[in-house]
């Protein structure tokens, strides 16, 4: 395995290694040494550290840093370290260049058809048929006598090309700016990520990118480690290394067993300090990313090669293509082109609609072309009885090309290519503006999904409350104090015990600092509950700092850190006489069960029986909880000198305690929350509170917030009761049972992370009620990860949230405030409405333009709207309108309607009425102008003009009127729910005004000076006024339409439904486990490369072993076998990861675990790779049909040959 460890260094450019070998800049370790050290794990790593450096202290000395004081904050020293050991920065993948984006925009089918048409048209225009036989070809060439006119034939083709170029540039520019915005957003997220290090003995928060090798970093529960390091001191530290190893069990880290901490892994429990040994591209995550860079380019070549090689190898190559290699092959083939995350509600509806419109357009354009060609052929060869002469062929072909171009224009107008543009612009605009409303959007579509939200499951602490906790009541020495007692009123012995219990048994990173400004409140740093307790110590006129200085963190004998299962935290210290003392604090009802004594008013012990406990719960705890206070019990226990307990047996250690006090901590409701919740309820969104708190506290807070109103029919449940109601006799969750509970459930108290996930999943999967639910969830803790991932929209707290929660979320609330969620709902609905507005406008134009082009072509053999004019109309209605209508600011009125839900169509009846109503008006006007316009304006008729004839005023008037009607209709389109005042709030959107006026200005230029390329001839003032008058008629007509009640029009169909229930394919339903965004997908690929090598070695060793012992045991039974594919079956959070270490309320998961661990892993020959030792077997349940168990997979073939 040693060679494996070094092999990854070979990926690196050689010069770097040669450069560092001679000088390590005065430091005692080279980069290569540290890198090879970080490749090791567990005992091997310890051995290496001892051989090379003596101990971790020796390593620190070599790196010229102090384990307690950290680095001197000296700029030159830090810079030198960066030069030698690299920066903590992984260069991002190259963004697509503008040219690549242009190339991608050119792939659009309609544009390709147009380009072909334009090029053919250009080519033919340069080919002039010999002039003498023009008579023989009929009146085809008539009107082209004027030389100048004949030469202008190329203009049409050139103009089409020009407009294609315009469309492509606009699209590419939009994509480019979107990409740029997104990168800006990402880098903002990255810059905001800070990490705690010790420099000059001071705790500092530095940006992650500023970490250097040799820094001493503080790690604590919930951190995402930003660099590799070696543990110097740790308390009960457990790390989730699944992102690197695929191993879902949490790995225990300690200085004497496994001190290696790796970047990209999550701290799930405990705390500690580490010395940073590798940063950036040299850290474990960095190495994987670098492999990715190497892997990305090689990937295509490999794919090609793989096809030629035999099946076994090809099979191993497979995972690179799929996003995570966890699927079975068949599903991979099916899903090769299906994006990973299930399309958002809106995207699903839009895709469907666009396809329907596209098909209709295609049919129309085909019919147009066929009719034109037949008409021409019949008229020329049948009626006029001409013969097809060879020399006339080019002339006829020119005609056919003209027909083809007309057909294509119909298609171009019919296909709403502005839709994706509108969605992108609208989302990008909203995301930018949402930043101002304290919503940092990580996934674009989350913003629109939020508008459809029907339920919000919110945390209590910090979201609904201020998260500024204070102790307001306490029960000390047999007395219940309703406010903080005077220190003199307390027994000094009790007071002393209390101060020690609070100061020592809390994270040393939690502190209360003096206020920044005069008169402000003291600053609370760290865990807020602990801050409340420390504040209580200060209120009792004592100080916690001296106690901590007397017993520094490294003197703590053992720490059981807080986690969601224990709901308590305990710390053991050595006392002077050689015995031990344990301090414990935690949720009162849990800790009081472990107490057998309590301190009375003299500070003496008196026994505390279950009967006393019940009385205390009734008299003290419940009244506190009903005031909305969170109750915390503080207790201690002494161990005499002789009896050192087995510290790993936690249940025996933390038992037989003596209760010191029970305190009631108040976390006041944020003043703005009740109003925000009222808005949600008015908007048809149900708010549910999911909290770990006691049920009485939760109920009191819920009533203060307005989540529950007196007299309503609602449920408040505890986690235990909730589980009892939704599980059957076997302990499995049943959807029918859940469906009986969730509609009335408003408060879920004492809930575990699993309960939260179960509730969210249950609501999302529920099919009861008239529409499916769309659920938003807020979370801040590491344990909220699964629920945040499962929810349609996950909100993480920006201030209190752990990195793990932020990683799993879609939107980060930068101010942790519930009102920001309401803002997100408003923006989401606004996005949805903007797109509906755009559709209403776009489809009107589409219907009219297609019908005009079609009928015009069939009756007059020439479309009244020329190709170039159509493209201009397309530009107005697609690009500009999407800009104008997609940037409408949201208004409070959006919160007065119910959410649309997953199944509501995009185009409502009202919108359908508007679209058809306006289409009727526009068609009437245009056909009137087309057939009797020349009489009305007293001008030459433009109908039946020969090829290449100069543009007529007649057709120019039609074109101009058409555009004017669109401009005025754009104002109508601003309202989609049948409102009368279409000008409402028009000036609050400057973009809209600019675009309408700008379009008008350009239209004047096109008509007056466009000439031949635009097929326009200048118009007089009177004609202009008529055009404007007709256009203005649109607004009047809009009022007429608004008068017709929609309910009378039963015949109108709605369009653009979401995918129906029956159409939800198995793929989509199965995608729950694989919602993986791009960054993760990239990381996954690297992991596969990484594991593939390890896996091959593993297989070889096993085969050798199997031969050597000639027994079958070397390979397990086929069903528990896992292949390289299974490495990837643990997405960031599969809820199964939790089942090992969260004892559920009823221990139903035991059998599942046994099942999973059925096959005992064979003793692995390499200690270096825990992933393969045990990770693989755990992974099998996630995809039961692991690929390898199918005959024909490489491992299976080895097994059969044995």
UniProtKB/TrEMBL annotation:
It is an enzyme of class 7 (translocase). GO terms for cellular component: glutamatergic synapse; plasma membrane. Residues 1-23, 1152-1202 are annotated as: Disordered. GO terms for molecular function: ATP binding; ATP hydrolysis activity; calmodulin binding; metal ion binding; P-type calcium transporter activity; PDZ domain binding. Residues 1062-1089 form a coiled coil. InterPro entries: ATP_Ca_trans_C, ATPase_P-typ_cation-transptr_C, ATPase_P-typ_cation-transptr_N, ATPase_P-typ_cyto_dom_N, ATPase_P-typ_P_site, ATPase_P-typ_TM_dom_sf, ATPase_P-typ_transduc_dom_A_sf, ATPase_P-type_domA. It is a multi-pass membrane protein. Its EC number is 7.2.2.10. Residues 1-19 have a biased composition (Polar residues). One of its GO terms (biological process) is regulation of cytosolic calcium ion concentration. It comes from the Eukaryota. The chain crosses the membrane at residues 109-128, 154-173, 362-383, 403-429, 919-937, 986-1011, 1023-1044. Keywords: ATP-binding, Calcium, Calcium transport, Calmodulin-binding, Cell membrane, Coiled coil, Ion transport, Magnesium, Membrane, Metal-binding, Nucleotide-binding, Phosphoprotein, Translocase, Transmembrane, Transmembrane helix, Transport. SUPFAM superfamilies: Calcium ATPase, transduction domain A, Calcium ATPase, transmembrane domain M, HAD-like, Metal cation-transporting ATPase, ATP-binding domain N. Residues 50-126 form the Cation-transporting P-type ATPase N-terminal domain. It is found in: Cell membrane; Membrane. Pfam families: ATP_Ca_trans_C (PF12424), Cation_ATPase (PF13246), Cation_ATPase_C (PF00689), Cation_ATPase_N (PF00690), E1-E2_ATPase (PF00122), Hydrolase_3 (PF08282). Residues 1179-1189 have a biased composition (Low complexity). NCBIfam families: ATPase-IIB_Ca (TIGR01517), ATPase_P-type (TIGR01494). Belongs to the cation transport ATPase (P-type) (TC 3.A.3) family. Type IIB subfamily. Catalyzes the hydrolysis of ATP coupled with the transport of calcium. This is Calcium-transporting ATPase.
